[in-house]
Amino acid sequence: MRILFSLLLLLFSFSTFAGTLAERFVLMDTGVEIKVSSPGREKTLIPIIKDARVYMESLAIVLSSYNERSEVDRINNAKVGSKVKVSPVTAQVIKQALAISRLTGGSFDITVLPLVNLWGFFKKQRKMPPSPAAIEKILPHVGYYYLQVLPSGEVVKWQEGVQITLAGIAKGFIVDEGIRFLQKRKIRAALINAGGDLRVYGKRWRIGVQDPRDRTKIVGVITIKEGAVATSGDYERFWTYKGKRYHHIIDPRSGYPADSGIISATVLSPDCLRADALATALVVKGRDGFSWLNKKEGALLMKEEAGELKFIVSPGMEKYFKKTIR
Fold it and tell me: What is the pLDDT of residues 289-299, one digit of tens each?
């Protein structure tokens, strides 16, 4: 099992504060870290952080795209027009995913699963690109507009062969829910980081952004007191064929890996779910996607030109991000 870790690095640790605790585990093939601080409550922190982990794990089971007994699997195997009863959690995540798909014009699309499987970045590993004919055969079955969440909370597919994956949004949702869990229990300050999907509150945080081509280097720092930061890029899952890099972020409209030139996109947002999905969409669309960001959001894009990193910073990110390399 390949475990993904974050391109975001916490620079300001809890270690100098009293009443702190950290928990590390694996969720959806991703390394997850929870850090909490609540001085004077040391004895109560352990069960709270353990409960938060169990809660997040339970959500991961419900939202899994590769569990044959999951609700996602039942949707994928359903007939066209049939109503699939799902939990409120699954319905909520799919509704939010569809809203972001509409916002981004399909640059983010949870019906991309058949293309991802064809390219072989998760289950079936490939060593060369699929044929254009194979891609063209699948494209008519990809499109968020073929999926609907009814007022009853049931999910319906309106096209044969449509299959969904929540991999591009589920982690962000689970991080958000984990933070809400801790806030309800009056934890003073906390961080949850799930392989590049990170949310914090309670104090001033300095979050290092690592070089997507060299994990030993910090290229900049994002400083926030509260909110979510998510990063997506071509470094997570990829392979090379005839000198060309093919990565797992597929443009749902073309059927090919995104070719915007963006190798990493980092989004700042109040919610991790939205940051997660928009980071993926910005790798597909590039700086033209800045129009999707609301007043509380910002983005940092990186591209590679002549072996050097180039930064594209949205207005909403400028006051939070400081570059540390020339």
Answer: 999 999 999 99
C-alpha dihedral sign at 10, 16, 18, 21: positive
Q: What is the mean pLDDT of the chain?
A: 90
Q: Which CATH number fits domain 8-62+169-323: 3.10.520.10, 3.90.1170.40, 3.30.980.10, 1.25.40.10?
A: 3.10.520.10
**pTM score, whole prediction:** 0.91
Q: What per-residue string of b and e applies to 50-60 under the rule 16 or more CB within 10 Å gives b?
A: eebbebbeebb
Between CA 234 and CA 284 the distance in angstroms is 10
Report pLDDT digits (tens) over 235-277: 777 777 788 888 889 999 999 999 999 999 999 999 999 999 9
